Amino acid sequence: DSAEASPSVVLENIERCSPDCLQMLLENISGLTIDADFTVELIPEINAAVATFIKSIDTKEFVEKCSQHKRIREFKMTARLLESTQSIKAENLPESISTDFLTVYFESARNGGGPVSDVQLFPEENSAIITFCDHKGNT
Fold it and tell me: What is an example of a Pfam family matching this protein (predicted)?
């Protein structure tokens, strides 16, 4: 089960912690180095960040360390494993993009893709939702 654990951890309620502070905090808890061992993507729209570990670590153990960490609790942040999903949102797409192109692109193993079951285009947002046949093709 641990081998299947996500390499990504979602941190929620991050508004009281600056991005630099969050990165240092994650380095302190994990003992790893930002950029070399993990990346952090801020998602301000939902007051969250996603830490993705490049170096293989036990992310379940990391989440447990976070839940017990004094500073995480002071900031009222929470941490959990990022669950697998079968759909992703592609943004900033060219206006002329087609569902066929997106299907072929996201099915390409070279692009980290897999079999696509559905593509929904949202031209007014220049975005699309791509749904994979299983959650392994959405890296």
Answer: RRM_PARP14_3
Asked if residue 42 lies in contact with residue 49, where contact means CB atoms within 8 angstroms, the answer is yes
C-alpha Rg value of the chain to the nearest Å: 17
The Cα 76–Cα 63 span in angstroms is: 14
pLDDT at 134: 75
Low-confidence residues of the chain: pLDDT under 50? 1-3, 137-139
Task: Name the token pair of 3.
Answer: 């081998």
Burial of 83 (0-12, 13-18, 19+ CB in 10 A): exposed
As a three-state string, the secondary structure of 30-63 is HCCCECCCEEEEEEHHHCEEEEEECCCCCHHHHH
Rounded Cα distance between 117 and 121, Å, is 14
> What's the pTM value of the predicted model, to 2 decimals?
0.67
pLDDT of residue 32: 96
How many CB atoms lie under 10 A from the CB of residue 111? 12
